[in-house]
Design brief:
Bound molecules: the ligand CSC[C@H]1O[C@@H](n2cnc3c(O)ncnc32)[C@H](O)[C@@H]1O, zinc ion
Catalytic activity: S-adenosyl-L-homocysteine + H2O + H(+) = S-inosyl-L-homocysteine + NH4(+); S-methyl-5'-thioadenosine + H2O + H(+) = S-methyl-5'-thioinosine + NH4(+)
Distance between the termini: 53 Å
EC number: 3.5.4.28, 3.5.4.31
CATH class of the largest domain: Alpha Beta
Pfam family, one: Amidohydro_1
CATH topology of the largest domain: TIM Barrel
InterPro entries: Amidohydro-rel (IPR006680), Deaminase_MtaD/DadD (IPR023512), Metal-dep_hydrolase_composite (IPR011059), Metal_Hydrolase (IPR032466), MTA/SAH_deaminase (IPR050287)
Number of helices: 16
Radius of gyration: 21 Å
Oligomer: single chain
CATH architecture of the largest domain: Alpha-Beta Barrel
Largest sheet: 8 strands, mixed
Number of domains: 2
Strand order of the largest sheet: 3-2-1-4-13-14-15-16
Keywords: Hydrolase, Metal-binding, Zinc
Number of strands: 16
Length: 436
């Protein structure tokens, strides 16, 4: 039987191309889908199973976290104040070698997804090991999950070599073929950990299985310089020659990108996942986001993992991303509030080829949406809700979250998950990891 909910919202921001703010309108939610946006007068004649009054709230599409490693919540605060290669080689990879297992990934991913849901994230583009555990966490929490199947040339607890990463990924994906909210993506880790031969295989497999590709690219100056030493070319050029650059690719970071490369990225139709907090914390540098947008590149927003951010807070990263874009170029008009809001919603959906389903509030789309309560003192008065969402609001102001029409956060509380269980589990892992 079909179920209708009428949501009366103070402001509705559908995230169309131009900044549109609808005042005091009603969104009609029918089962999994957005049915219409109507006036309160039109809504009066409608029969509904539920009516929600959200007079001080913005209703908008859910946030799309375009780059993350969910399970790394269990390593949050484990190694701070280091640059990327020191952090990975001397701290994170040894710790992952000791602790990462199916259980670690499931528990860490559920914790991450709970944190993200409470903060208004409705899609995560993940990249980690033990893909079945990530997919199970997505099903448990109700999060729309892109399960990134990592591939490296060296052994980890999950697999011994590229062949094994690939065969396990294909096997893991089989069980989830009919799950609406779970999709699988190839995730070759980075140009410095994946060989030419494996990249070529990934391109062929992506075409064969119609999967996207998600890869860390040009994250640090060291990565680019080292590639020039090892291969005689910058990573992007190497990947272009290997056929990796296409609209299937989501390039995480692209901090060190020159003008020629931006033009190539635009020409190849690649999307970029910008991770401002992780780039600042690992001291990787400032990605030239406005220049990329000007070049016509689709740029989305990501948190990266909780071990390098250390929050999974898209509101914090929208604010940080918009501020550092201006500070780094000394141009106040760079990455305006609405540009950033697009990055965190529709641009992310486009990168994941999900924009026919989510990313905007439009009739016929799946209902991935959030309500943000602006009645807090910190977001008063309201001249422009778009400004507040990017520059003033906090994730704690997210009051309601729906994914595919399911109400997963209501009045700021998780509806499916028990917070006390999540806390107990996090403490269990803290003790285990601290014991070495
Ligand atoms: C194969 S994906 C998981 C792999 O990536 C590591 N990782 C986490 N954050 C970053 C980053 O910003 N750059 C490069 N690699 C990263 C993570 O620890 C896993 O080993
Ligand atoms: Zn990453």
């Amino acid at each position: 039987m079909s179920r209708t909910t009428l949501i009366h919202a103070g402001w509705i921001i559908p995230m169309s191309d131009e900044p549109v703010v609808l005042r005091n309108q009603v969104l009609v939610l029918k089962d999994h889908q957005i049915d219409a946006i109507v006036t309160p007068e039109q809504a009066q004649d409608m029969i509904a199973d539920e009516v929600l009054q959200l007079p001080n709230h913005v209703l908008m599409p859910g946030l799309v976290n375009l780059h993350g490693h969910s399970a790394m919540t269990l390593l949050r605060g484990f190694a701070d104040d280091l640059d990327l290669m020191d952090w990975l080689n001397n701290h994170i990879w040894p710790a992952e070698g000791k602790h990462v297992s199916d259980e670690f990934v499931y528990d860490g991913s559920v914790l991450a997804m709970a944190e993200m849901l409470l903060g208004g994230t409705t899609t995560i583009n993940d990249m980690y090991f033990y893909h079945d555990a990530v997919a199970r966490a997505g099903l448990k929490t109700g999060m729309r999950t892109m399960v990134g199947c990592s591939i490296l040339e060296f052994p980890t607890n999950y697999a011994q070599n590229a062949d094994e990463y690939i065969s396990k990924s294909l096997q893991d994906a089989q069980a989830y073929q009919n799950e609406e909210l779970i999709n699988f993506v190839w995730a070759p880790h980075a140009p410095y950990t994946v060989s030419d031969e494996t990249f070529k295989r990934v391109v062929a497999l992506a075409e064969e299985h119609d999967w996207l590709i998600h890869c860390h690219i040009h994250e640090t100056a060291f990565e680019v310089e080292d590639s020039v030493k090892q291969h005689g070319k910058r990573p992007l050029q190497r990947l272009d020659e290997l056929g990796v650059l296409s609209p299937r690719l989501i390039a995480a970071h692209m901090v060190h990108t020159n003008e020629e490369e931006m033009a190539l990225v635009a020409k190849r139709g690649i999307s970029i996942a910008h991770n401002p907090a992780s780039n600042m914390k690992l001291a990787s540098g400032f990605a030239p986001i406005q220049a990329m947008l000007d070049a016509g590149v689709n740029v989305g927003l990501g948190t990266d993992g909780a071990a390098s951010n250390n929050k999974l807070d898209m509101f914090a990263d929208m604010r940080l991303g918009a501020l550092i874009a201006k500070g780094s170029t000394r141009k106040p008009t760079d990455v305006k509030a609405y540009d950033m809001l697009k990055m965190a919603t529709i641009n992310g959906a486009k990168a994941l080829h999900l924009d026919d389903k989510v990313g905007t509030l439009q009739a016929g789309k799946q209902a991935d949406m959030i309500a943000v309560d602006l009645s807090a003192l910190a977001t008063q008065p309201v001249f422009d809700p778009i400004s507040h969402l990017v520059y003033a609001a906090d994730r704690s102001q997210v009051s309601h979250v729906w994914i595919n029409g399911e109400h997963l956060v209501a009045e700021g509380e998780l509806t499916r998950l028990n917070q006390a269980d999540l806390l107990a589990n996090a403490q269990h892992w803290q003790q285990k990891i601290a014991a070495g």
